[in-house]
Amino acid sequence: MRGSAHTNSINLKEDGMSMEKNVMSDAVANVMTRDLLYDLPPERFQLTIAGIAGLGTAVSAVDPLTGGGVAVTVLSRTTDRIVVDVPLTDSPRILVLG
Prior knowledge:
Elements: E1 9-14, E2 17-22, E3 43-50, E4 59-62, E5 69-70, E6 73-77, E7 81-88, E8 94-97
Antiparallel strand pairs: 1-2, 3-7, 4-5, 4-8, 6-7
């Protein structure tokens, strides 16, 4: 629509001041590149979490949509940091440290 002769604007007036925003200049075309009816397969990510007691921290993960556990692998630990490998999808996962 960038070639359109019409300009979509929002005009706001407050305290005698005027502000105009051309909403079409901020428009972005979104193209669906996958079928949203199907879940994406899990992809593995390495997460580094610092500022914790890395040597004594237990790590687990839960999929809140199913209530099931998610496999988490601890790759390394130091006194204040932990690096984990966890499969992530396009739905939330809860990483539990404790």
